[in-house]
Design goal:
- Pfam families: Alk_phosphatase (PF00245).
- By secondary structure, this protein is α/β, with parallel strands linked by helices.
- It folds into two domains: about 375 residues, Alkaline Phosphatase, subunit A, CATH 3.40.720.10; about 90 residues, Diphtheria Toxin Repressor, domain 2.
- It is built from 21 helices and twelve strands.
- The strands form two sheets. A ten-stranded mixed sheet has the order 5-6-4-3-7-1-8-11-2-12, with helices on both faces.
- Strand 5, helix 9 and strand 6 form a beta-alpha-beta unit.
- Helix 4 runs parallel beside helix 6.
- The longest helix has 24 residues.
- The two termini are about 35 Å apart.
Length: about 550
């Protein structure tokens, strides 16, 4: 295992030219060829002779809550963990083209609902808005426009499929907590009918009621409906566990439309995820990409797919640095798998990646005392942690043995977090806490302090977020750069995708304006959902 000092000093994988200089005899023709080849940005576009295809695929990635510091933290963590060269960077790092400003219509700091609506409708709205404008009128979305124009559509997440980001592309409600209504609309219960061809994620609870027990645990719908049964009757293929998911054969054996609800609520953090129970984001993403690609292979229309690294945000809200680096790594792996798919595709395909906002006010430094600042942070402390604070808080609270303090010392601190320099006060305080959130906060703070990682908030920040992109056609790549290179408002990203696909979102808005979206029509549901959310660790 490398030391922090060896990682700081680093070693470059690039060969030292001073040791490799040899006499060069380059003809003028060879030099000209080199200049031409060099003019193509091989970091972003891998050219080649491809058959011309009229269809277009757009794969839009949302790294919920991931700011620039998340990349810095994760990059250094990975280099330390795997003993890598300091120039061995993340897959995302190679695709960086710009940054995005994230404010909503009513706040300098956006929430995920307004952030996602900025992408989906290409307009600014208020915090909490799902597919509606500032006056609470439904706005046409990219996903709806795609379906209406003959493309197939999909949503892939690691949180609830009814959560803010996927909801903003596939529904219209005044307030993000209206998840029962969101689920209904996603399955086609609104004026446009079914607009989504594929949904993979969690959030099963909002599709049935407490009276239904066939799905393993009680649902939370307030209207008595079982949307899963209704969906099956209406032709949806339903997948509810990892065994059924594997039968999809990474997208080769999918019958659309597909509803895959793989968790009651959110899929666990990657640091906690049991691969025998839950798929990875990469598995979800590639199943979706392959399924949509296969379904459009004989069509001149492509697909629009939104993929979200949802729980980066949750790790930020909980100030859990150990969970966050694993979430970013899981996303980075999924992104690269999809990028390689696009690279090999004969169909024109672009990938756009950005965040709705930054979460946590993360900084890769923290001063613990009043002495002259130490310029350090310690990845080893994050590597020592084998579970998230969320997971361990449940473990602490569910303990029923006779010696809770000893359990905390040996099982939680020493084994699960690799913390051996704890104090007696740490043990006593933790043993007395009775809230999952308070326990998680205590554990996450202990890890972050030892890593010298700082947080400024449990909410969001106004930090600009990065934009990444890839295109498998040189002409399209230039189009991406012309529109997204540099610093942009978040709505410009949504508008670029609409323009690229030649969509008229105003016309779609006219079609959805009669959608029932007000909480006044669903008061019981809204109150139940707010009560449900108020006791959860995961914030907005």
């Amino acid at each position: 295992m490398p030391s922090e000092r060896s990682q700081l000093l680093g070693r470059s994988g690039k060969k030292k030219w001073a040791q490799k200089i040899k006499p060069l005899r380059v003809s003028l023709a060879a030099l000209l060829l080199l200049l031409v080849v060099g003019s193509v940005s091989i970091n972003y576009f891998q050219g080649g002779i491809r058959r011309e295809s009229k269809k277009k695929n757009v794969i839009f990635f949302v790294t919920d809550g991931m700011g620039p510091a998340s990349l810095s933290l994760t990059r250094s963590f990975r280099q330390f963990r795997d003993s890598l060269d300091i120039d061995d960077i993340l897959n995302l790092d190679k695709r960086l083209i710009g940054s995005s400003r994230t404010r909503s219509s009513n706040s300098l700091i956006t929430d995920s609902a307004a952030g996602a609506t900025a992408f989906s409708c290409a307009l600014k709205s208020y915090n909490g808005a799902i597919g509606v404008n500032p006056t609470k009128d439904p706005c046409g979305t990219l996903l709806e426009a795609a379906k209406l124009n003959g493309l197939l559509t999909g949503l892939v997440v690691t949180t609830r499929i009814t959560d803010a980001t996927p909801a903003a592309f596939s529904s219209h409600v005044d307030y993000r907590f209206q998840e029962d209504l969101i689920a209904e609309q996603q399955l086609g219960g609104y004026p446009l009918g079914r607009m989504v061809d594929l949904m993979i994620g969690g959030g099963r609870t909002h599709f049935y009621t407490a009276a239904d027990s066939e799905y393993g645990s009680a649902g939370s719908r307030a209207d008595g409906r079982n949307l899963i049964k209704e969906a099956k009757k209406n032709g949806w293929s339903y997948v509810g566990n990892i065994h059924e998911f594997h039968k999809l054969q990474q997208g080769a054996n999918v019958s659309l439309p597909l509803l895959a609800l793989l968790a009651d609520y959110d899929i666990p953090f990657d640091i906690d995820r049991d691969e025998a129970i839950y798929p990875s984001l990469e598995e979800e993403a590639m199943t979706a990409v392959n399924a949509l690609s296969k379904a459009t292979e004989n069509s001149d229309k492509g697909f629009f797919l939104m993929i979200e690294g949802s729980r980066i945000d949750h790790a930020g809200h909980q100030n859990d640095a150990a969970a966050q680096v694993r979430e970013v790594l899981a996303f980075d792996k999924a992104f690269e798998a999809v990028r390689k798919f696009a690279e090999q595709s004969d169909d024109e395909t672009i990938l756009i990646v950005t965040s709705d906002h930054e979460t946590g006010g993360l900084v890769t430094a923290k001063q613990l005392g009043k002495d002259y600042p130490e310029y350090v942070w310690y990845p080893q402390a994050l590597l020592n942690a084998s579970h998230s604070g969320e997971y361990l808080s449940k473990k602490v609270l569910s303990y029923t043995g006779e010696n809770k303090e000893e359990f905390i010392e040996t099982s939680i601190f020493e084994r699960d977090l690799g913390i051996v320099d704890y104090k007696r006060d740490d043990v006593k305080v933790l043993a007395e806490l009775t809230s999952l959130g308070d326990i998680a906060d205590k554990l996450n703070l202990m890890v972050s302090d030892r890593a010298r990682v700082g947080w400024t908030t449990h909410g969001h920040s106004a930090v600009d977020v990065n934009i990444y992109a890839y295109a498998n056609r040189q002409s399209v790549w230039h189009q991406v750069l012309d529109n997204l290179q540099g610093n942009h408002e978040n709505i410009e990203i949504g508008q670029f995708m609409a323009d690229y696909l030649d969509f008229n979102l105003t016309k779609v808005t006219e079609l959805v304006k009669k959608t029932k979206h007000s909480p006044a029509d669903h008061k019981i549901e809204l109150l139940d959902n707010i009560a449900h959310h108020s006791g959860l660790l995961n914030d907005l």
